[in-house]
Amino acid sequence: MTLTNLKFVENKIISGKAERYLNVHVDAAAVIKSWKESVFSFEWLAPNGAVKPIEALNDAEREKRQRVEEDIAAGQTLETPILGIGLMENIEIGAGRAIFLTLFDKGEKTIPVHIPKSNEKDFAKFIASKA
Length: 131
Known about the structure:
By secondary structure, the chain is α+β, with helices and mostly antiparallel strands. Helices cover 27% and strands 24% of the residues. It has 4 helices and 7 strands. Strand 4 (82-85) and strand 5 form a beta hairpin.
């Protein structure tokens, strides 16, 4: 699986306000390293920063992961994840967490995301390319 085989669409959360967001590809490992500081990362990441195996996820997150796996296998279009900057100045995955983390776990090095234009400078070190 590679991103060239995957199709992404605008995340419905930014519908009507897409002009406030940039579409970029981010360095997935760098994002994970920053997101590890999030209070929500424990749901998906092991203490060493690796994505937990599907059986180690709680029921709700396991279901999300399974849906993403099924969508990828079926060639379904995926919603572009949305990233932001958290209170502790780390990256937060605002929407599409299961998509982003599943792709990372499958070995994707860069992943397309939406970021707020107002945070473009904060994301400079994470951006692999602009879409």
